[in-house]
Amino acid sequence: MFKGLILGIIVGFLLVGAAIHLYFATGQAPVAVTASPMPFERKYAHIGLDAYLNKLPHPEPQTPADEQNYLAGAEIYKQNCAVCHGLPGADKTAIAAGMFPKPPQLWHGTGVTDDEAWETYWKVENGIRMTGMPGFKGQLNETQIWQVSVLLKNADKVPASVKTALASSAAPAVSSVAPSTVMSPLKPPAQP
Question: Rounded to whole angstroms, what are the CA distances from 101 to 97, 117, 125?
């Protein structure tokens, strides 16, 4: 009887694995940004990320939280982050609006001020799979990543000079082109 139970558990796991494989292999899984999320997609992505981050060391920021570093971080942010994560007082860009999962708009609401700087540092340095968040290791140096991380940790407390610097070259907002005028590469244009 014990062998039958073990065999049943093994067969059950194999059937579940086969069903998941078939779900993806037969094209049933949503792959378009505009498609509905898979069941539990967001929940399991967060569970995995949170569990991984909890295992990491939590270093203190290597740059002080001062205006000079905020301003340096603001320039780095504008060049590398704003297109997806937005700017204070600016609308979402077309790139951010077209992504799934939607990138958090870091200057609207809480942003990542509730995340510790070390956590933001890790996300900027390494990126996050299956989210569109790239890793900047090798593109930005440690000081630059810390400057952006400290800026974002303190986004709700930065001086007006930093907000002005961020707003000085706002990224273009979502296009207001009517959907009927946008051509799809998969559909021929409508004939007049």
Answer: 10, 22, 19
The ranges assigned to domains in the chain are 55-167
The mean-pLDDT minimum among 35-39, 87-91, 157-161 falls in 35-39
Strand partners, 128: 133
Q: Would you list the DSSP string of 106-168?
A: TTSTTTTTTS-HHHHHHHHHH-BTTTTB---BTTB-HHHHHHHHHHHHTTTT--HHHHHHHHT
Contact 103, 132 (CB under 8 A): yes
Compute and round to an integer the Cα radius of gyration of the chain: 22
> pTM of the entire structure?
0.77
Residues 26 and 24: their CA atoms lie apart, in Å, by 6
* Model pLDDT for residues 37-83, shown as the tens digit of each residue: 887 888 888 898 999 999 999 999 999 999 999 999 999 999 999 99
Give the CATH superfamily of 55-167: Cytochrome c-like domain (1.10.760.10)
Q: What is the pLDDT of residues 97-119, one digit of tens each?
A: 999 889 999 988 777 788 999 99
The neighbouring-strand residues paired with 137 are 140
